[in-house]
Design a protein that fits this description.
By secondary structure, this protein is α+β, with helices and mostly antiparallel strands. It has a single domain, classed as Phosphorylase Kinase, domain 1 (2-Layer Sandwich). The protein contains 4 helices and 2 strands, in the order ααββαα.
Length: 68
């Protein structure tokens, strides 16, 4: 269900936005910017050259160090 936002503060107060901004893990794609246009939020993430499937198909499992 789409939700219209009355204010920019209301949109950026979303739990998802707050959580994504606070995740400083090297294995998590970083949220760079949140853009609101016509009451629709657009999330801009850093660029990743390969997707999770491409990373996993060449490995049997991630090591503990890679996960942490």
């Amino acid at each position: 269900m789409k939700k219209k936002f009355k204010t920019w503060e209301e949109a950026t107060a979303l739990r998802e936005v707050k959580a994504l901004k606070k995740l400083p893990h090297p294995n998590i794609i970083k949220l760079r910017e949140v853009i609101r246009e016509n009451d629709i939020l657009y999330f801009v993430f850093e660029y990743m050259q390969e997707n999770l499937y491409e990373l996993m198909k060449d490995r049997l499992a991630f090591s503990y160090a890679q996960l942490m």
